[in-house]
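FAQ

Q: What does a record look like?
A: Structure on top, sequence underneath. For example:
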């Protein structure tokens, strides 16, 4: 019994320390950077995060608006009349900014927007501070910024998410490139309702944007982002609580607290890696849903068929067989990212994705005898157990609580165990 009690914390420590060492859906040779990563367990780590930076814009940052509890970073914005630099302002909010700066990598956050709509904008981004002027292609670049993403929660469409690549010259003149999800339509989900994973791959040659492990936008880097930058998570104020005057933002008088304030965004984790993406990043993912002959698809829908990934490129909704008509774009072979697989299994067994949101896929490629598949909690309690002699097994994990589990696979006399993360909203 004493050995079992001692073993449990060791297992928990090993699982927690090993968890999250690779991005969701982006393969490559990655190394996690602790100075720009946090699981938000315990208190805010003020040795790596500044939660009281200098103010800007028609609201102010206040440390008491930044909290860590329940395993989440909680940034809150609320009404508070105050004066700053002689101007009357009406809101204060929360922010964290890395104390160190970084250039290039893969940046990932799992977060949930605020209930308030419109008027707030949860954001995950980088910007340069006190960097030297760089002469790039004949232009003097002083400032750089990447917004990946800004969840705008606009009045006309709460689902809209922006990605901005911004630079400014030594005179302060700004140039920016903006992309909005789905060409201004937005993703299929409301970012206020559930947690989603947002990521950005930033290299010297390109910048790519991801949601839940799928590439949804990109822009060429060109001259835009050559400075080191600080990593930021913030909750900003948006219209209708300010207006633009002569190119600047000015607070609209709001003497009383509006409805739905205070409001809070939640962050489960932030992780940053540096390394080399496989195939330039954004490779195919075998967890794309299989093509269905009786389904109807819309622009940019993605499916897997005949070991390839296909994207519906017609503006009209419809369907036809991928490869046999011109309305599907061939995105290449369905090479599942190794970093999205569960580790610790032999070459003949593949289990993915990890983390898993709903369906766990297990492929027994070269295994003749399959005996038993078990999912246990970290204390060893059996949660799911299934016997099968199929080559492809799918296990629905949607009823499980978020957290760490142990996957055990028995084939004949051999037993393999590995860690599994259930990542439900």
């Amino acid at each position: 019994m004493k050995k079992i009690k001692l073993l449990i914390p060791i297992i928990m420590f090993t699982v927690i320390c090993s968890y999250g060492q690779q991005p969701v859906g982006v393969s490559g040779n990655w190394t996690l950077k602790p100075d720009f990563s946090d699981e938000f367990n315990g208190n805010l780590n003020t040795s790596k995060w500044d939660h009281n930076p200098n103010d800007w814009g028609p609201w102010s940052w206040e440390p008491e608006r930044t909290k860590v509890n329940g395993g989440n970073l909680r940034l809150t914005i609320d009404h508070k009349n105050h004066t700053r630099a002689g101007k009357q302002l009406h809101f204060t909010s929360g922010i964290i900014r890395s104390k160190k700066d970084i250039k290039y990598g893969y940046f990932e956050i799992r977060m949930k927007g605020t209930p308030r709509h419109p008027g707030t904008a949860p954001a995950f981004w980088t910007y340069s501070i006190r960097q030297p002027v760089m002469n790039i292609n004949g232009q003097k670049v002083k400032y750089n910024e990447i917004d990946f993403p800004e969840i705008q929660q606009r009045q006309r469409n709460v689902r809209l998410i922006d990605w901005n690549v911004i630079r400014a010259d030594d005179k302060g003149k700004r140039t920016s490139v903006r992309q909005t999800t789905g060409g201004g339509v937005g993703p299929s989900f409301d970012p206020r309702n559930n947690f989603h994973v947002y990521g950005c791959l930033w290299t010297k040659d390109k910048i790519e944007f991801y949601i839940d492990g799928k590439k949804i936008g990109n822009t060429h880097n060109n001259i835009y982002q050559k400075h080191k930058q600080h990593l930021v998570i913030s909750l900003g104020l948006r219209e209708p609580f300010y207006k633009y005057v002569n190119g600047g933002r000015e607070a609209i008088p709001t003497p009383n607290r509006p409805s739905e304030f205070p409001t809070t965004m939640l962050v489960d984790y932030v992780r940053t890696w540096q390394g080399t993406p496989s195939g330039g990043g954004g490779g195919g993912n075998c967890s794309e849903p299989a093509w269905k002959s009786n389904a109807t698809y819309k622009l940019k829908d993605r499916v897997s068929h005949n070991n390839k990934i296909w994207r519906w490129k017609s503006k009209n909704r419809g369907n036809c067989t991928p490869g046999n008509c011109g309305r599907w774009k061939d995105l290449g072979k369905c090479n599942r990212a190794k970093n999205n697989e569960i580790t610790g299994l032999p070459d003949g067994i593949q289990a993915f994705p990890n983390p898993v949101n709903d369906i766990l896929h297990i492929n027994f490629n070269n295994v003749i005898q399959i005996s038993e598949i078990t999912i246990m909690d970290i204390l060893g309690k059996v949660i799911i157990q299934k016997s099968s002699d199929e080559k492809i097994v799918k296990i629905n994990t949607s009823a499980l609580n978020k957290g760490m589990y142990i996957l055990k696979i028995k084939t004949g006399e051999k037993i393999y165990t590995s860690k599994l993360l259930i990542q439900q909203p």
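Q: Is there anything notable about this one?
A: Helices lie at 2-18.
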